[in-house]
Amino acid sequence: MLDPQALIESFGTLAVLGVALILFIETATIFGSFLPGDSLIFILGIALSSTLNFPIWLAVPIIVASAIAGSQVGYWVGVKVGPALFKNRKKTFFFNEDTITRSHDIIERYGPRAIVLARFIPILRALVPMLVGIMGMESKKYFKYNVIGAILWGGCLLLLGWGLGNIPMVKENIETWVIGFVILSSLPFPIEILRDYLKRKKAKKLESTQTSQS
Predict the structure, then answer these.
(1) Distance between CA atoms of residues 110 and 152, nearest Å
(2) Cα–Cα dist 201/148, whole Å
(3) Other CB atoms within 10 A of residue 137 CB
(4) Band of the pLDDT at 121, cuts 50, 70, 90?
(5) Which helix (H) or strand (E) covers residue 24, if one does?
(6) Three-state DSSP class for 91?
(7) Which of 39, 147, 168, 169 has a CA 20 to 30 Å removed from the CA of 114?
(8) Which residue has the higher pLDDT, 186 or 63?
(9) HSE (CB half, 13 Å, CA atoms) of 113?
């Protein structure tokens, strides 16, 4: 895993633009899934509050725009190239129609929330836009939830790091805070899955009760 703090330090005064480029690459293609997007945004926020001479009001729209643009590219790759990837191709774990069917079921079950929540999972934030494109979701609808997800992920996480950056306890224990932050930022999707599971379990129990009473 790349060291996000070392990356930001290596960019110097161009840190915001460097992070924006990395976020674009990470969200535009599944080959960028190894990049540390979450921790990069958080540490960039901390740096902006202390060492970087760059206005936060300008950094936020740059980061959000790069996240939006990357996912839009991923979506259009799915629309234009996706079907060809699965046609007349040897069946593998990823390149098969079953993957598309399962992904379609996830999107149908969780609705547009899946697009937003996928932002917080490293592999999913690169994979979901392409799969949604392959599935044929309307471009305007996808763009709407792409923007919402980018703001919540890129904008809010950057502001969180910036807000915490001047707290001594955070600055003195950056690695610990980053690890905890990454864990917390990965929780929304599992929580949503658990919530949906409990909801469906309750519905089945109610249906079973009604059946036994009739």
Answers:
(1) 18
(2) 30
(3) 21
(4) confident
(5) helix 15-28
(6) coil
(7) 39
(8) 63
(9) 13
pLDDT band at 97 (very low <50, low <70, confident <90, very high): low
Terminal-residue alpha carbon distance, the chain:
58
- The secondary structure of 28-49, three-state, reads HCHHHCCCCHHHHHHHHHHHHH
Question: Which residue has tokens 């969200």?
Answer: 27
DSSP secondary structure code for residue 151 in this structure: I
The tokens of 87 are what? 């046609």
- For 111-140, give the DSSP string: TTHHHHHGGGSTTHHHHHHHHHHHHT--HH
pTM: 0.76
Between CA 210 and CA 213 the distance in angstroms is: 5
DSSP conformational letter for 12: G
90, two tokens: 């040897």
67 near 19, Cβ under 8 Å?
no
Higher pLDDT, 100 or 136: 136
